[in-house]
Amino acid sequence: MLEEKIRRLYLCRRPLWDMAVSQLKAKYAGSYLGIWWAVFTPLLLAASINFVFGKVFKVGINNYTLYVLAGIIPWLFSTNALLEATNSFSAKAAVFKQAILPAELIPLSSILANFLNFLIGFIFLLPVFIIVNFQVVKFTPFLFIVLLLHFLFVLGLGFLFSLANVFFRDFTHFLSIFIMIWFWITPIFYSADMLPWPFRLVCLLNPMSYYVMLYQHVLFQAKMPSPAILSVSSLLSILFFLAGYLTFAKNEPRLLKVI
Amino acid sequence: MKAVSFESVYEKYHIKFINGQKISWEEIWALEDISFEVGRGQVLGVIGQNGAGKTTLLKLAAGMLIPDKGRIEANGKVSVLMELGAGFNPEFTGRENILINARVYGLEEEVLNLRMDEIIDFAGLGRFIDAPIKYYSQGMYMRLAFALAIYVEPDILLIDDILAVGDEEAQQKCFKKISDLKQSGKTIILATHDMGMISRLADRVILLEKGRIIKEDIPQKAVPAYLETVGEKKGIAVLENAKLRAVFNNGRISVDYEGLPVTKGPGGYLSFFVPALNTWVSSLNLSWQIKSAESGAITAEGRSSDGVLWQVWIIRVHSGKLEWQVQIKEKTQAPQVDIFLSSEYDRWVSLDQNSNFSPFISRHNWHSIDTGSFPEGLLAFTMAEDKGLVSSLALERQDEDGQIKLFNTGYEQEARVVKMYIQDSLICLTVSLFDNKDNFDDYMKRRHARFLSNRQEEARRLLAQRTISSGLLRLFADVENKALRLYYKGRELTAGGGFHSYFPREPAAHSLNTCQWQIEKNGETLSLKFFRNNPYFTQSWIFSLVDNQLLWKINSSCAGSRQPEDFRFGLSLQSGYKTFFCGHQQGSLSPENAASAEVPLEDPLAELFGLRKDADLPAVVFKNDLSHSCSIKNSGADYGCRILDLCLPPDAAKSGEITAAGEFNFLEDESVIESYLEKKNQAFALKQQEEESRAVASRTIVSGPFSLFVDTKNKAVKIYHGEREITWCKGLHASMFLASEPDWLNPLDAEWSTNRVSDKELILIWDYRLLSLRLICAFKWNRGNALDILVEAQAEKAFQPIYKALRLELASGYGKWKTAGEAGDFNCEQCVNSIVPIRLKDSKISSVVLEPSDDSGPFPFLFCLFSPHEAPTLSLFKKAEEDGEHVYVDYSIVIPKETRIGPPEKSILFRARVMPGDKRPPEESAKSTLRLAAGPAELIFDRGKTRIIWRQEQITDGLGIYTSVRSKGIWYDSYQANWITMNESKGNVLIVKGEWPHIPIAQTWRMELREEGLIYWRVDMEVHEEVVLELEQANLMLSSKYKKWLVPEFTGGDFIDEHPGDYDILPFRFWYGKPLNAGLAATGEGLPEISFGISGSFNNGRFKGIIENSDVLHKARLLQYQKANAGKLSPAGYPYFKGLVVIKPQS
Fold first, then answer.
1. pLDDT digits (tens, 9 = 90+) for B1007-1038
2. Residues A130-145: tens digit of each pLDDT
3. CA pair distance B233, B1128, nearest whole angstrom
């Protein structure tokens, strides 16, 4: 069963790629700056956070802008990917009905499109970190592991969310609110260390925090990711991916009937 | 190998029901226990009503749904063609969408590039391929989706009823493509409502009903099964008996036998016209309810939407037969039953004919094969070759003479259609079906044998009932062929319909053919009744035979106040008859009888008429003792008969009724006819004689021994002295030559009519109808037996006459003639152009005396004209005509150019007189001549010709001094002109002016006679209109007593005494050359030498001098000067000629 699913997915690798690329293209179709938005969006967000928290609230972190940037980039990927995955079935119902595609392809392509978007922006912004701290170069290989773990996590969650939204149309509205809250409880513009106990628990119970911290370790602190966090996030990624995918596969017949 | 297989597949849906506030979820099974397999290359059709689960089944096959239970296998690449245009992004162009979707289908880039053009071409989008899809029409969407689905080379193609979209052409294209895919071994699952497509494409069909497969079979069986189940359940019933199965489904019947469909498509149903709705309604439109259903029989009621009961159907099946009875309860118009039979039936058989169905030729329209009522209402259908695809069937309608029509439907939906018109409100049909063709053939043979024996028996019975005979005659009323036949010694005398009656009546002529016939035999009397309703018309005939005599009596009446006119009664006989008689008349009939023609009868009221016997045909005598009018006709080749008719007069009908009676005799001994003919002939001859003498008297006027008779029959005006005719043949005629006509008016072409005014006076009118011109001759005997003739012309439009002539043809026996100045005989034999001229000279004479050659000859008479100022030319000549030689006395007159004959006045053409006696006519009136005298010489000018008299002897001859011009090859002499005197002849000079007829010129002559015998002559010409004058001449015509000619100081010679008969003038031309000053001269014994010279001013080299003999008319010598002109002459005055005639007394 699983084997069969993987075989079909493999057969559909081209359409998947096409869908992702065309979704990415569609995102920036008609805009002047195009893919540069992948660079500007995190920069602008980082700048504005820097203004509020660095200058107004005076957060005591050196190179605060860089710190925020290191966290905001993965954060933007996560939220955008999850939002689009959630809406993917309603957005792509037509394609799905016509073509004989594995249902997984629908959320997968949305997440993949955002992942590509993220990578492009990341490639442009990586030199910023390197210029500021050349030490970062030494640890960039670790980024591949981080990226993989992060991607798996988002994918698993994406499966769950897309499925949820098919059966509960309220989910997408809930999600947009939840993401706002999520932002505050993720250590992007602050450090987890800055939180006192027991409030730090909120942060640590948020799985997203670990992935953000991994990026911060590599890009900002230019050190090897802490093995503890790495192992926790690996565990989380596998857990979320399996949970997401298996739930999705189990509910696929129902899903097909509803669409 | 299986391409697709389903094993006990179940699929359910959760459906949310919202009823106000109450929301409930229910599980609905879309498919239950579905199992089937489709082999590679097979086409599976999926049919069923909406909601039966077709689409779910396809989605499951495509993997777009996952079954709740069971297993589905699909081996190969699956392509789905389902919802229109799905999967297309409307913002992208067609090409981009193809690319994106093709990748989704997993098509390799290179392959796709190769196929792109093919896809675009198939989709037929043209430039639109590069336009965003949102601009596409629905048809374009469909074609693009279809093109895409098939060009991605699927192994399995799933199609869900989308082909209904698009125009005919696109559908055909798609249909063809699907067929191609099928050919190339693709597996196709096709869900559709289009039964035609299913029938043509699918190898097998599964029929779904409420999510279950209720039938899986070949399309020929599954499709009818589906059609049976479509519809309201309360209106569906199935009847089965052995191998026969009939399904009634809401107003239609479909039948199959041994599982093979007999009917096709809609099967059998009724259609009828409802005047209230002004529309055609089919039994399918009614709402049906099965009222009773027993084994083998049902009763169904069909009501309209407002509950009115329209029809009751009773259907029974038993022992291989289907009985179908329809009662029509509500009044409708033109109800008819249509039965669609399988197109496998290619042959139909009835008891008296059979034929193969023609192939399907018309795509959409029904094509009529045959029409008629079939004997015993039996019509059977079978196959020329038994392929075992359908069972032969025999259809029998109880009302045997009902009309049945056969059709082929359009080949889109191939079926044979039997259309039966329902006469009353009831039709009962029995359909018998047969296990095999042998049984069918046996059955038909039995029926046919029975039919034949019935028919023979019937024919025998009828023959006896409809025949009377007596002696050698037998009369038989052949009702089948609507003919009344008469036999003599066993041979039929009549032809065609035999006895008939006829009268013209709107809209078509009445004929017995269109009537109903009723026959009654009473002993040896045969009474026949013919009637027709619209328009109402009835006739009764009573025939009886007595020996060889046929007595008839006829009574006819018809509706309406209009009386039948031209009522005829008679009989048509064999064309072996060749001779007819009617009264005294007897004649032969055209043996070929090629064209229809009435024989003209001289005495149509004769008491007897008929046909003479011919070989073994006896003479037919039609007794007409009531003096009706008879008619004998050749029918022409189409009917090949002789028709004897009695035509009743228009007033024969009394209040629309006609009664007539009479008898025919059939004789081999013709003595009766012969004696009748003889008697009639004598009477006729007598009568004719009487009539003739009466006619002659009415056209004769008499004076003393003389009489004038106008023979209108031979078109001649004859004058008699006693019994002896003075005139001959055509007698006295007047005629004209009109500018508009090519020839003289011929009185023979005119219609002649006479009016005898009194004993002495008669008016004769020649009416030229075509010209609207009438010549009116008034003849009147005057004192002294003088016949005065006045000829006038009366025209309805203006005519331009050129000549007129009054001509008298002379009886033989006249030998001499004399005029005022001359006399002669008729002995000349020299012929010119078939005319022997006796006197064609032109001296204008208006009276002549004609005398017999000896005492035994006819009475001498004077023929004169009272119009001297018109200068008539008297001609006497003999003319050889087809029927021999004729002698004519002819006055002809040239009419001045400006003269017109026309309305309103009558124009007098001639006043003339024919008077007995031989008194020489008086001298012509001198008024018309001018005379100059000087010494012994006298010069007399007389209308364009001038005589010279020397010592009381005329030395000129014929025309004397005259001019002549030639225009367009025709000579115009000065004597033809109309001359007027310009001076009173004072002293020695005369001046005259002549206007030429026919050509627009005039000449002024000035002549002066001197004592010395000198004549000065000057001619000036005026041209009125542009004209061509090729030759101009000035002439001196001398007496033939001149024997020598000379050109003084140059040459000379003798004249010879022969004259050119025709225009062969050269042997008689003695000299031709440039004139010398001394001129041309001639001498003769006892005559003064005369010379004719041209004035120096005219001798400019253009004139040539000529000395020659004149033609045979004048027998004179000619001295002339001639000038040739090249071009046209414009209107102006021209000097014409100036010359001098010198008379030298003998020395």
1. 999 888 899 999 999 998 889 899 999 999 99
2. 888 888 788 888 888 8
3. 108
Give me B477's structure tokens.
């009323």
Residue owning tokens 């005319």: B835
State how far the Cα of B916 lies from the Cα of B898, in Å rounded to an integer: 37
Cβ within 8 Å of A, B 127-146? 145
HSE-CB at B694 with a 13 A cutoff on CA atoms is 6
**Cβ contact A253–B104 (<8 Å):** no
- Measured CA to CA, the distance from residue A240 to residue A208 in angstroms comes to 12
Contact B36, B213 (CB under 8 A): yes
Q: What is the pLDDT of residues B855-910, one digit of tens each?
A: 888 888 999 888 756 778 788 888 888 777 888 999 888 777 677 888 878 888 89
Angle between helices A105-132 and A37-49 (to 10 degrees): 60
Selection from B69, B137, B148, B65 nearest residue B106 by Cα: B148
Q: Which of residues 1055-1094 of B touch A (CB under 8 A)?
A: none
User: In this prediction, what percent of chain B has a pLDDT beyond 90?
Assistant: 12
- List chain A residues with CB under 8 Å of B101: 98-99
Q: How far apart are the first and last CA of chain B?
A: 152
Would the CB atoms of A99 and B100 count as touching at under 8 Å?
Answer: no
CA distance linking residue B981 with residue B974, whole number of Å: 14
Pick from A242, A197, A196, A193: nearest CA to A213 = A193
Q: Count CB-CB contacts under 10 A for residue B318.
A: 14
Q: In B, residues 99-118, which contact A (CB 8 Å cutoff)?
A: 100-101, 103-106
Residues 6+ apart with CB under 8 A from B886: B728, B729, B730, B809, B878, B879
| Contact between chains at B88 and A100 (C-beta distance less than 8 A) | no
Tell me, yes or no, if A1 comes closer than 8 A to chain B by beta carbon: no
Q: Cβ of A60 under 8 Å from any chain B Cβ?
A: no
Task: Specify the pLDDT at position B926.
Answer: 45
- pLDDT per residue over B1090-1143, tens digit each? 999 998 888 888 899 999 888 777 888 999 999 988 788 899 999 999 999 999
Identify whether the C-beta of residue B226 lies closer than 8 Å to the C-beta of residue B260: no
Of A11, A18, A257, the CB nearest to B100: A18
Q: Which two tokens stand for residue B430?
A: 């029995």
The pLDDT value given to residue B177: 81
- What number is the ipTM of this complex? 0.71
Residues in chain B: 1147
Which of A18, A101, A256 faces B66 most closely, judged by CB atoms?
A: A256
**Pairs of residues, one from chain A and one from chain B, whose beta carbons lie less than 8 Å apart:** 58
pLDDT score at B130: 85
What is the rounded distance in angstroms from the CA atom of residue B593 to the CA atom of residue B576? Answer: 10
Determine the pLDDT at residue B1033. 93
Paired tokens of B9: 């597949």
Candidate from B79, B86, B103 with C-beta closest to A18: B103
Model confidence band, residue B86 (pLDDT cutoffs 50, 70, 90): low
Q: How far apart, in whole angstroms, are the C-alpha atoms of residue B537 and residue B552?
A: 19
> Strands B187-191 and B43-48, how do they pair?
parallel
Mean pLDDT of chain A: 84
C-alpha A242/C-alpha A237 separation (Å) is 8
B87 in contact with A, Cβ within 8 Å: yes
| Percent of the residues in chain B that have a pLDDT greater than 70, as a whole number | 93
* Cβ atoms within 10 Å of B494's Cβ, excluding its own: 22
| pLDDT higher than threshold 90 for residue B1005 | yes
Q: How far is CA A85 from CA A156, A237, A241, B143, in A?
A: 11, 17, 14, 32
The residue ranges of DSSP E strands in B82-235, in sequence order, are: 156-160, 187-191, 204-209, 212-217
B514 by DSSP, 3-state: which? Answer: helix
